[in-house]
Amino acid sequence: MDNTNLAHPHTMDKTDPRTMDTPIPTHRKAIIGNPNGLFWLYDTTTGFDLTHPATPTSTSTSTGRHTITTTTQPVTISASKSALVIIDMQNFFLSPSLGRPRDSKGLLAQHQLLRFAIPAARKAGIRVVWLNWGLTDEEVVAMPPSTLRAFGFETVRAEDFEAYATIEDKQAAMDSHGVNEGCDKIGDDGDGDGVDTTAKTTPGSGHTQTRPRIYRGLGTDIGPVTLDDGVAVDAGRLLMRDTWNADLTPALRQAYEQGLAANPPDVWIHKNRMSGLWGARSDCTDFLDREGIQTLFFAGVNTDQCVGGSLQDVSLDLSPSFCLFVYLG
């Protein structure tokens, strides 16, 4: 075997550029995604660019470029192509009038939104989208059992099951799951429905707070609630549109109404599943497509359910040109 063409490392020609030790440039760039479609840009000096110019080498014409410091690398976004999506910050999930803790993580998230995220979005010119449960009767009928169960359901005595559909006096299921977590620890107040919703004063707090209720399912009547000022209101049907329980908390409702005069103005979008971005299309995806919004900041409750579900669904949907950067309030 002729080995004359196999150069030994120590005998390589040092003048041959193919064998010379050349330093690797430390400033590098990359295209992440399809350069003819959806892509991000990466620069070792400036981080990730999510401003979406027409081509990887063209200058972005979008307005309101902002670079955000993160725990890893900087991210540059275009305000005109971005939205802060606030999910489910509604009375049903947050109000102490329904037994929610006054020091809950949800109300802490509300404080952070009002103090930091919403003012920052307004200042930057980023659209604020309020994505909330808001059901119609038709949507309740079409709701899958897996979603219905999470919001409670009703039972009848076994011997009456054949007439289930016609029985009006059903009892709330003592199913310690979803919104009824801990229902097995709630006592009976003697009215026959197995639920104690009487007002109790928390020792040392001075606050009168309604004990947790047992919910009978989406679209069922919650009944009256007493607000902090002592006024009683009808909470309405569970998470149906235009009800008190499906409304934003008073502080966030005020922020939303102020945002209607912002530039760009706030938007309220109803959703009918845990995720607000599920399926081939939704009211929210239609809006984002129409407005050319490609970068989303997420906040709201609960992170592991409606917020996380919306994030997962939109990141898996490859047809719209949505890119994601996440803020979890």
TrEMBL record:
State the residue spans of region: Disordered: 1-21, 189-213
Species lineage, top-down?
A: Eukaryota, Fungi, Dikarya, Ascomycota, Pezizomycotina
Domain of life, source organism: Eukaryota
State the protein's name.
Answer: Uncharacterized protein
- Record field: transmembrane: none
Write out the biased-composition intervals (Polar residues). Answer: 198-211
* Basic and acidic residues: bias regions: 10-19
